[in-house]
Write a structure and sequence with these properties.
The protein is α/β, with parallel strands linked by helices and 270 residues long. The longest helix has 18 residues. The protein has ten helices and ten strands. Bound molecules: adenosine-5'-triphosphate. Belongs to the ABC transporter superfamily.
Amino acid sequence: MTANALSATELHVTFRALQGRGEVRAVDGVTLDLRTREILALVGASGSGKTTLSRTLLGLEQPTSGAVTALGEPLPTGGRAMRAYRRRTQLVMQDPAGALNPRHSVYESVAEGIRLHRLVAEHNARGEDVTEVDLVSGALASAGLRPPERFFLSSPHELSGGQRQRVLIAGALAVEPEVIIADEPVASLDASIRGEILALFLRLRDELGLSLMIVTHDLGLAWNIADRVAVMQAGRLVEVGDTEDVLLRPQHEYTRELLAALPNEQHRVR
Ligand SMILES: Nc1ncnc2c1ncn2[C@@H]1O[C@H](COP(=O)(O)OP(=O)(O)OP(=O)(O)O)[C@@H](O)[C@H]1O
């Protein structure tokens, strides 16, 4: 049996309420697997706990109770093992959230992770004659920015929204991860560019064998690329299953409400 890329078991993440007393159960008893080489869409309205669940899977947030395992192993708690885990499991945020440093060139942005994880030395130790420039070029090319050298010295403000999103994806790919969690990766993009970025995610799964969890409030996106869909409401997972089952035959009232709110053009046939 292949281990899941990531698993959450009875996960709870509780915060003290930002205003007033009491607590917020941001994640409230979630059991969920990200299978290897699958694309899982995590959907739900704003505030349903998607980001908190993702951050906990990435080891950026501590669970109040419950467990996270990665490829069958418990999440490391600190030090070198955590750094290695962070490399294997990359987060791709959306660019308007300030994910790209406006003062860094594309090259610098993509090279950051390569330096942090000392990848050139690692490759060289394996007898591979690669340079940092080779690794940055490879990551940009894999993210669809070709020829890569053309983008090296560009600043984020010189790029289109789609290109900036590709730079963020290249930064993640540069450290050769097994899992990518993408948080609203296309929310700010035009429809045609959105399609291109989604096609890129599909290609990364097919060609690099990545496992991807895409966090979104957009069921149209889930329909377009996800193998499975998990629906969150108020910290709980209310429905999870194959995309066609969940979106064509929703079992839960909340999923039906999310579907009813979809604009008509998003009801497309795969
Ligand atoms: N650090 C924190 N302290 C207190 N409450 C928090 C914290 N982080 C998140 N929350 C609360 O937890 C709940 C879930 O938030 P979360 O950001 O995970 O939801 P989300 O589904 O990702 O929403 P969005 O789509 O708007 O990002 C919300 O009620 C939020 O206000």
